[in-house]
């Protein structure tokens, strides 16, 4: 056996995780056999886009709906067509979490646990099985972070290619949903901070700061606008080069419209505490009572908050930069919702921040718990897995034994 044959191959583990996640997400994907929650809007938008008919659902850009339209074209106008590409986006998230954990923590074991904690968090499972925009946005943003770190660490000559890849992915994230815009800003701020560190010779080697920032902006913006190409071929009201920019202001105008009160709306401070989930579905479907509760796994959601605090502590007190980076990723992705002028908020806005909790848990357990309890990570994962199995009936639209079955999972009145 050669020395190379015994080296860990992280990319093989990432692929295995992606395949396992995809199989989990695909199981019973066509149940329920009707649109649920916001699928009502996005499936209709995807049908319209598949026919290249006319603008529809113009409060959001096109890319995520283009994937849904592609699913309809490939698999038909049915649940598999609506949701298939969402499962791929979810699998991308799991693979990206592993890659990010490996990059930041430098070891396969905590990276693997980070990916598994994220997989066991209900939010990823649910969003990977529904035709909504957030899953696509999160997938592109997560892979963009991985490629940005690769750009920062790459030798001169390769850094530019990784930066271009990251900029493309960020542009695709924004093209899926505008809530990815802050990550373009975060990427630019990270470049500025890292280039100024050690005189700019250690990170983004071979790239000067101003041209690198210009490349990031130009490529991400260009990618975003390219995503509107299908709209140039509408039968009615097609876009043109002259109307492309004004159309962005139409999107903005729609985003700023006041929304009516919604029974599942919630405030930003409740999301990390898992206080106000959303019933995506609770009704008889396909001949039996079913439910899908958009809820976070309590072990990951609540344990993740403690872990984020531990990451901040390690990062600030002990200058453990990887743990500080994880804490900042969570804080940045969550903090934008505190300042974004949204009159009505929903728990699923916390989807992307909830992904970083798995990384925080894996890092904090390894640093603080495992020196005292060797199997702390295994115990934490076992708890998360037990809760995933326990709540599985109401996150997967499994058959329930009556319209009051939901009560057995209602730990708090606010979950009803």
What would you say this structure looks like, in words?
About 60% of the residues lie in helices and about 5% in strands. The protein has 15 helices and two strands. A two-stranded antiparallel sheet has the order 1-2. The longest helix is centred in the first third of the chain and has 27 residues, at about 80-105.
What keywords describe this structure?
single chain; 416 residues; mainly alpha; globular
Fold topology:
Blueprint: H1 10-26, H2 39-50, H3 63-75, H4 79-105, H5 108-120, H6 122-127, H7 134-153, H8 159-176, H9 181-196, H10 209-226, H11 241-255, E1 278-285, E2 288-294, H12 298-317, H13 321-339, H14 351-369, H15 376-391
Antiparallel strand pairs: 1-2
Helix pairs in contact: 1-4, 1-5, 2-3, 3-4, 4-5, 4-7, 4-14, 5-14, 5-15, 7-8, 7-9, 8-10, 9-10, 12-13, 12-14, 13-14
Would you summarize the structure shown here?
The protein has 416 residues and is mainly alpha-helical. The protein has 15 helices and 2 strands.
Order of helices and strands: HHHHHHHHHHHEEHHHH
What percent of residues are in strands?
Answer: under 5%
The largest sheet is: 2 strands, antiparallel
Compute the number of helices: 15
Structure class? mainly alpha
Measured distance between first and last alpha carbons? 58 Å
What is the 3D shape? globular
Helix percentage range:
55-70%
Radius of gyration: 21 Å
Going across the major beta sheet, what is the strand order?
A: 1-2
Number of strands: 2
Unreliably modeled segments:
1-5
Overall pLDDT confidence:
93
């Amino acid at each position: 056996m050669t020395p190379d044959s015994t080296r860990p191959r992280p990319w093989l583990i990432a692929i295995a995780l992606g395949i396992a996640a995809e199989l989990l997400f695909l199981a019973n994907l066509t149940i329920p056999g009707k649109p649920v929650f916001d699928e009502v809007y996005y499936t209709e938008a995807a049908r319209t886009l598949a026919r290249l008919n006319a603008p529809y659902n113009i409060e959001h850009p096109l890319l995520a709906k283009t994937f849904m339209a592609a699913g309809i074209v490939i698999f038909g106008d049915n649940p598999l067509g609506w949701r298939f590409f969402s499962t791929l986006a979810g699998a991308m998230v799991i693979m990206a979490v592993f890659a990010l954990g490996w990059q930041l923590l430098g070891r396969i074991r905590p990276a693997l646990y980070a990916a598994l904690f994220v997989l066991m968090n209900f939010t990823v499972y649910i969003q990977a099985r529904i035709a909504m925009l957030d899953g696509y946005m999160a997938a592109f943003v997560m892979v963009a972070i991985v490629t940005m770190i690769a750009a920062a660490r790459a030798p001169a000559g390769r850094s530019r290619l990784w930066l271009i890849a990251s900029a493309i992915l960020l542009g695709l994230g924004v093209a899926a949903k505008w809530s990815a815009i802050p990550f373009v800003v975060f990427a630019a701020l990270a470049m500025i901070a890292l280039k100024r560190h050690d005189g700019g010779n250690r990170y983004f080697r071979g790239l000067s700061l101003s041209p690198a920032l210009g490349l990031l902006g130009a490529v991400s913006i260009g990618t975003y606008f390219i995503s509107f190409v299908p709209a140039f071929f509408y039968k009615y009201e097609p876009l043109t080069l002259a109307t492309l920019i004004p159309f962005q202001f139409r999107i903005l105008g729609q985003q700023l419209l006041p929304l009516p009160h919604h029974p599942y709306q919630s405030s930003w401070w409740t999301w990390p505490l898992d206080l106000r989930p959303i019933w995506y579905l609770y009704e008889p479907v396909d001949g039996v009572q079913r439910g899908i509760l958009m809820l976070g796994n309590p072990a990951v959601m609540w344990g993740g908050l403690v872990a984020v605090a531990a990451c901040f502590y390690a990062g600030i007190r002990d200058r453990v930069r990887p743990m500080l980076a994880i804490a900042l990723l969570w804080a940045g992705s969550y903090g934008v919702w505190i300042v974004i002028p949204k009159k009505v908020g929903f728990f699923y806005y916390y989807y992307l921040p909830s992904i970083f909790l798995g990384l925080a848990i894996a890092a904090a357990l390894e640093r603080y718990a495992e020196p005292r309890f060797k199997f702390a990570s295994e115990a934490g994962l076992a708890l998360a897995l037990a809760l995933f199995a326990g709540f599985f009936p109401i996150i997967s639209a499994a058959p329930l034994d009556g319209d009051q079955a939901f009560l057995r999972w209602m730990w708090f009145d606010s979950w009803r």
